[in-house]
Amino acid sequence: MRRERRAAVDSDIFLSRTALAKATIHYKARQVVYTQGDPADCLFQLRNGRVKLSVLSSQGQRAVVALLGPGDFFGEGCITGQPVRMATATTISLSSALRIGKVAIAPLLHKNRRFSDHFVSYLISHLSNVEEDFVDQLFNSSERRLARALLRLADYGKKGEPKTEIFRVSQETLAEMVGTTRGRVNVFMNRFRKLGFIKYNGGLQVDGSLLKVVLHD
């Protein structure tokens, strides 16, 4: 077992054995966990389900900045002194998340080395993804951004085997992730399907050949 995965497993075991496990909150599909502008008073770790993070501009434009899965953290801005939430967290499906109050985070990081290593590793990976997304938005076409988003949802580029099938995500959400219209996403998805890059079979299957779109000049 890889060290990163071992740290994640050990940290999950540690959390499940502490009093913090009682702070697990269950959410319905499409339920708001917190809203942009709310006080940043806690950290969450998603245990089950899916959550999307979205931001709303002063002009009323909405963008999805992340889709999260089990084990992912969100709301980590509270650790750096962020006074309010910079995004809205909304569940996509039935979900549960562990809520860790801001005052409990520092003792938790000091108490368990495995958890601390896993959390720091997650933050570094998250920052790297934010930087890649910024470059993606600046220099790549919307079609290439969509291909990259689908590959990321299928865990291509991460250690271990990528997923052959990803959870159902609406074209509206994909459009908000990519920064284009739903109509354009529909055109690109149909093109990817005709070329054999994706398949619909109950769920959405992403083939590694979709990398050709990302790497094509």
Q: If you had to describe this structure to a student in words, what would you say it looks like?
A:
With 217 residues, the chain is of the alpha+beta class. It is 41% helix and 23% strand. The chain is built from seven helices and eleven strands. Strands 1-8-3-6 form a four-stranded antiparallel sheet. A four-stranded antiparallel sheet has the order 2-7-4-5. A three-stranded antiparallel sheet has the order 9-11-10. It is globular. The chain starts with a helix and ends with a helix.
Keywords:
217 residues; alpha+beta; four-stranded antiparallel β-sheet; 7 helices; 11 strands; 23% strand
Number of helical segments with 4 or more residues:
7
Main sheet overview: 4 strands, antiparallel
How many β-strand runs? 11
- Helix/strand/pairing class, anyone? alpha+beta
Q: Portion of residues in helices?
A: 40-55%
Q: In what range is the share of β-strand residues?
A: 15-25%
| Overall geometry | globular
Overall mean confidence score, pLDDT: 84
Low-confidence stretches: 1-7
What radius of gyration results from the CA coordinates?
18 Å
Order of helices and strands: HEEEEEEEEHHHEHHEEH
What spatial order of strands do you see in the largest sheet? 1-8-3-6
How widely separated are the two ends? Answer: 37 Å
